[in-house]
Design a protein that fits this description.
This protein is of the alpha+beta class. It has one domain. The protein is built from 1 helix and 4 strands; from the N terminus they run E-H-E-E-E. Strands 1, 2, 3 and 4 form a 4-stranded antiparallel beta sheet that branches. The protein is elongated and about 40 Å long.
Length: 59
């Protein structure tokens, strides 16, 4: 597949709390054919760890 499925963009930034749901979202993107773009960014919002991970379409 030369373009991402479902009209998704070639570059995406996934964000959210550092939990199992976030890890599943990143894993689903990888399963679709996206590749990680560098390492994640991590911050603390005073209550929980928030992660951002960029992915790029590799198809």
């Amino acid at each position: 597949m030369s373009t991402p499925p479902d009209g998704l963009p070639e570059y995406r930034v996934l964000t959210g709390p550092d939990d199992a749901a976030f890890c599943r979202r990143v894993s689903e993107a990888l399963d679709m054919g996206y590749k990680l773009h560098a390492g994640p960014a991590v911050t603390f919002d005073g209550e929980r760890v928030i992660v951002a991970q960029a992915v790029v379409w590799a198809g």
